[in-house]
User: Fold this.
Amino acid sequence: MNESQENNYLSVVYNEKDKPYTRYPDKLARHLFYKYKMQPGQSLLDVGCGRGELLNGFVHCGLKGCGVDQIDMATSICPGVEILKANLANDSLPYGDNSFDIVFSKSVLEHFYYPEKLVSEMHRVLKPGGLMIAMTPDWKHEYKTFFFNDYTHRTPFTKISLRDILLINGFNNVEVSYFKQLPFLWSMPYLLPLSLLIKWFVPPCFSKYSKLVKFSKSAMLLSRAVKPLN
Assistant:
């Protein structure tokens, strides 16, 4: 997408009426901060930061956050945070080699025909020993709607293909898992059977009205990987 299309995409798909700002991004950022033992003062780059909600959440955790996207919409809720513009499909990321302790992206890689180009750039700007976290929709859970609910989706991922793209582009210690976007499960994983019961026995039509139903029936892929020290 060009810059005008990207602006229109965010204003239509992520308009505040249909998708109002919530506390979820702060909760997710804090969960990942503690899950992966991040430390205040570490530098983080949010690739494809969009409206900036997750980037803002990481900053609230004490990280030195920066964002890059095709537009600078995130500046409205991330005052004082560096937000740079780049064509993520074609351009190099506007940072030098080995610049960040952590590189993060959510719901970004699936929007490109050649996501390996962006993964390679994310590897380049990450410091040796640095942490890469990428989240994408899981094809196994989303195959019925992946291409139809978002016309900008280009490349679906499974646990295997997401693992492979990270390994092929030089990452080590790759882990990929299913991730439910239900904060109560992060602290109380023993309630997962409740989510599975909802998934199998509550009709899909209720997904429109209940996030509990919607996110019980779907899952993201959560990957973490490390850039080798040499």
The first helix runs from residue 3 to 13. The chain has a mean pLDDT of 92. The domain at 3-183+219-226 is CATH 3.40.50.150 (Rossmann fold).
